[in-house]
């Protein structure tokens, strides 16, 4: 299964997704620039991504904890999510996200 990630320069990358991995871990471990300072503990907001509108409804909704942390991120939009809170699964094959300002 694949995910597509647009980096901060606008370049799109296709990355192999692994079931059960956090989207943040896939982005980080495949070498794209993402800070993800807290390592996935939902306590830094530096793994902020914009999710393609078509995919928003297919994700497990954000928890209150994620929404509170997102409030601290710059340039939050309706399609903002923390990529460490999105778990990869077959259902997300083809997911497209864009790295947000402040995540690099
Ligand atoms: Fe810190 Fe996602 S890595 S909130």
From TrEMBL:
The protein's required cofactors: [2Fe-2S] cluster
GO biological process, one term: P450-containing electron transport chain
A Pfam family: Fer2
SUPFAM superfamilies: 2Fe-2S ferredoxin-like
Organism domain of life: Bacteria
GO MF annotation, one: metal ion binding
Entry keyword set: 2Fe-2S, Iron, Iron-sulfur, Metal-binding
Domain 2Fe-2S ferredoxin-type, residue spans: 1-103
Gene3D superfamilies in UniProt: 3.10.20.30
Family statement drawn from the similarity comment of this UniProt entry: Belongs to the adrenodoxin/putidaredoxin family.
Protein known as: 2Fe-2S iron-sulfur cluster-binding protein
Source organism of this protein record: Futiania mangrovi
């Amino acid at each position: 299964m694949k995910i597509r990630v647009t980096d901060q320069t606008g370049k799109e990358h296709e990355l192999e997704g692994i079931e059960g991995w956090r989207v943040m871990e896939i982005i980080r471990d495949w070498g794209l620039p993402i800070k993800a300072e807290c390592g996935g503990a939902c306590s830094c907001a530096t793994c902020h991504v914009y999710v393609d509108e078509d995919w928003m409804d297919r994700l497990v909704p954000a928890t209150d904890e994620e929404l509170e942390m997102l409030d601290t991120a710059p340039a939050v939009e309706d399609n903002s999510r923390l990529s460490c809170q999105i778990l990869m699964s077959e259902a997300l094959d083809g997911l497209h996200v864009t790295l947000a300002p402040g995540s690099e």
